[in-house]
Structures are given as structure tokens and as C-alpha cells.
User: Which sequence fits this backbone?
């Protein structure tokens, strides 16, 4: 741990800081900008804002690259705190780090602080920089640590950008595939081939660029569970915690309760189960949906867990081809998640007299009910999905009713209601919900 006691030791630490920053600067300069893929989230970063711009998301989804892309035409300084040489760094040491930054980069008015949650008391440093009119982008892989500090210490002085692995549109850009080729019969077939590939392989940038998916995803999952959760929260029952993480990976899209997790894994209390699940969510391995209810307690009792990237489904030993329906639902969930902040809606599932996959709540009203089904070819499946939407809508009077499928597209008129059936590729590429709720975007 850093501790300055004499002038000589202080000079040594300053030199160490400078050396680390120089090496990180060299690494930054070696990044090939030609390999960068335009990310939709870049539009949400205001590089001239007086607020801290905070990019949060799972490790290796491209947070640092996104920030570098936003700053690429500006003179900026950079620190990556996810470096073992910074282990034990405290807020009091950051002033010396700032001195080293100016020594390495010269004058700058934009600063990128990568994985800032690794430094205790970071908010004091950031607040001071903001007062000095430095434009700051922060990145972090733990949503709770960042949000807790922000709510307490950066009140009203930050903006949030949530970043996930590549969307299907970004996946196509990385593969250098133009969407216009999908207009032909051949193109539609190629589009489905690419989408099925995306469904199984997911959107981690390194995997898309050619890294072996199984090895990469396994190692990433292990690193997050071990480093970001077990070590950080000092979890004692490591084996049980790992088993819970893998069990959730195999039960994505299913409704769970903390009481059920407690019973299955023999935990001492329901609160322990809640903490364990929340740690996995905070590290962005999973995202959860609450059940929609006007009674808050009922809404919080049950939830559905989804994978932050569909490639994690492999960890449970399940073949993607055997779980197309669940993977499709997971992709739809992630697409909805990508746009919720800028469009200002909340996502729930509904389960009472009818079961609805996704309920979109906007401006204190139920805006849209969405069902996901691989196909409506089977009459029983078709009738079930239509009955669920029309039945639930008797209570909610939603503005839109939608069924997302792999291939089908039609309008269904039922009981005076119109149900839009959309093929998933068209739905995700046209950003249907964005155009509906925020047409100016």
C-alpha cells in the first residue's frame, strides 16, 4: 500500500507513477483506431459537459475504447486503475498521481479514469477536478460501487452511460457487413445465418474479432467471479457462491426467488441469497427484471435473471441450438436494456392471469406489451401468445402490442386490437422502440 514518509520515498513514488503512466500511454498509442467500431453509445457522451460522464458495464465490453473514441480528437490524459501496480492506492495519493499526469501528458483539460472503483475515496479527487473545469470520463465494472459513491458525493454532477457488449447492429459493423445486402432473398438468408451466429457467440468485442469463444468467456467469467466479487466482498463460502453463479447461468430467462436460491443451496438466510445475487448483478454478469405490480413489495419479491451476453449460456453446458427461444428472449431483453435510459422507460415482466415477457412502463403508463416466440407457425403457440397479449391488455390498455419472432411479420387484428408481429432482425436493426418513444434520436 502506498504510504509516503520521507522526501526520498515521495520522489521514488512520483517516479513510479510517471513510469506507470508512460507505459500506459505507450499502450494507448499502440491501439489501432482503424479497428474501432462505432458504438451507438458514443452519441450519449458529451465531451464538453461539466458533469462527470460515467461509463459502466461488464468487463471487456469496450468501455475504455468507447471513452477513447469520444476523446480521440481532443488532448486528453489517461489512467487505468485496473493495474496491479496501483493496488492499495488511496485518495490521498491521487494528488501525486495528478502531478505525474501533468509531467507525462503536459497541459490537458480532458481526463479518462479507467476502472475508477478500484480506488477508495475516488470521489474526492473527481470532485476537485470537476471544480477545476477538467472534463472527465470515468469507467467502472461495478454498478453499485459507482452508483453508491455518485449518489452520496457527486449529487447532480454526473451522467450515466450503460454499455453492453456489441448489439447485433454493431456486430455487423465489426464483421464489415452492410445492412442493405439483406434486402435480397440471398441477403435475408445471410442475415439469419449471421444472427444465429450472434445468438450463440454473443457480442464481446474480442470474441467477435476472433478469440476462441469458449476459452475467452470461461476465463472472463472466472475473473469477474473471483476478482470482482469473491475477493472484493470477502465471500467465505466460495464453492457455494460459484455454484449459484453457474446455476443462474443455466436458468436465464426463468423466474427465481431469493427463498428458492436459499433452499437449493442451503444458505443460512434469504438475505444471504439476495446479497449473492446482487453481487453478480453489480458486476454485470446478469441483469434482472422485477415482476410488474402496482404493489412495490410484490414487485421486488420475484425476478427474472438474464445474461449480460448470450455467450455465457455455454457455461452451463447447454447447446445454443437447443435453446434458441431462450437466447432470442435474452437478446430482446438486452436490446430493450440498451435504450431504457435515453428513452426514459422501465422494463418489467408480468405474471398474473397471463404471462407477458416484457412490459414497457413509460411516463407512469404501460406503453407496450412484448411477447417473444421463435415462431407462430404452431396454432397452439399462436393462440397462446395472442390470448396473453389481449388478455393482459384488458387491464393495461397499452399503446402497442408486439410479438417478436425469428422470421414472421404480419399485423394481427383481434378483438379490436392490432398486434404487430416483427422479425427480430428487423426489430433490432430498426430500433423500433427508440423510434416510437424518442423519434428525435
Assistant:
Amino acid at each position: 500500500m502506498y504510504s509516503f514518509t520521507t522526501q526520498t520515498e515521495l520522489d521514488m513514488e512520483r517516479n513510479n507513477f510517471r513510469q506507470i503512466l508512460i507505459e500506459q500511454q505507450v499502450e494507448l498509442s499502440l491501439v489501432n483506431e482503424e479497428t474501432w467500431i462505432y458504438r451507438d453509445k458514443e452519441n450519449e457522451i458529451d465531451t464538453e459537459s461539466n458533469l462527470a460522464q460515467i461509463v459502466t458495464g461488464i468487463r471487456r465490453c469496450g468501455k475504455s475504447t468507447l471513452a477513447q473514441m469520444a476523446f480521440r480528437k481532443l488532448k486528453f490524459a489517461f489512467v487505468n486503475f485496473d493495474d496491479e501496480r496501483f493496488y492499495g492506492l488511496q485518495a490521498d495519493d491521487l494528488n501525486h498521481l495528478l502531478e505525474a499526469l501533468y509531467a507525462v501528458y503536459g497541459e490537458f483539460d480532458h481526463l479518462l479514469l479507467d476502472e475508477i472503483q478500484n480506488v477508495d475515496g475516488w470521489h474526492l479527487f473527481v470532485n476537485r477536478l470537476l471544480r477545476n473545469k477538467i472534463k472527465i470520463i470515468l469507467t467502472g465494472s461495478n454498478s453499485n460501487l459507482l452508483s453508491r459513491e455518485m449518489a452520496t458525493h457527486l449529487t447532480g454532477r454526473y451522467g450515466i452511460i450503460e454499455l453492453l457488449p456489441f448489439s447485433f447492429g454493431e456486430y455487423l459493423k465489426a464483421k464489415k457487413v452492410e445492412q442493405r445486402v439483406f434486402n435480397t432473398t440471398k441477403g435475408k438468408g445471410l442475415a439469419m445465418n449471421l444472427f444465429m451466429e450472434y445468438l450463440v457467440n454473443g457480442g464481446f468485442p474480442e470474441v467477435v474479432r476472433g478469440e476462441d469463444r469458449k476459452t475467452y468467456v470461461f476465463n472472463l467469467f472466472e475473473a469477474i467471479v473471483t476478482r470482482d466479487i469473491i475477493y472484493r466482498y470477502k465471500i467465505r463460502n466460495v464453492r457455494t457462491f460459484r455454484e449459484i453463479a453457474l446455476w443462474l447461468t443455466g436458468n436465464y430467462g426463468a423466474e427465481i426467488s431469493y427463498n428458492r436460491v436459499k433452499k437449493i443451496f442451503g444458505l443460512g438466510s434469504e438475505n444471504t441469497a439476495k446479497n449473492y445475487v446482487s453481487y453478480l448483478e453489480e458486476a454485470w454478469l446478469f441483469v434482472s427484471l422485477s415482476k410488474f405490480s402496482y404493489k412495490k413489495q410484490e414487485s421486488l419479491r420475484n425476478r427474472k435473471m438474464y445474461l449480460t451476453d448470450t455467450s455465457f449460456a455455454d457455461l452451463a453446458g447447454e447447446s445454443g441450438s437447443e435453446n434458441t427461444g431462450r437466447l432470442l428472449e435474452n437478446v430482446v431483453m438486452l436490446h430493450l436494456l440498451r435504450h431504457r435510459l435515453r428513452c426514459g422507460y422501465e422494463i418489467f415482466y408480468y405474471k398474473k392471469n397471463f404471462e407477458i415477457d416484457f412490459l414497457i412502463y413509460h411516463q407512469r403508463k404501460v406503453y407496450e406489451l412484448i411477447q417473444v416466440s421463435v415462431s407462430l407457425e404452431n396454432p397452439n403457440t399462436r393462440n397462446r401468445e395472442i390470448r396473453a397479449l389481449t388478455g393482459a391488455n384488458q387491464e393495461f390498455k397499452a399503446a402497442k402490442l408486439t410479438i417478436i419472432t425469428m422470421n414472421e411479420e404480419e399485423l394481427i387484428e383481434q378483438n379490436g386490437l392490432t398486434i404487430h408481429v416483427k422479425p427480430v432482425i428487423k426489430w433490432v436493426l430498426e430500433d423500433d422502440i427508440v423510434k416510437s418513444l424518442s423519434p428525435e434520436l
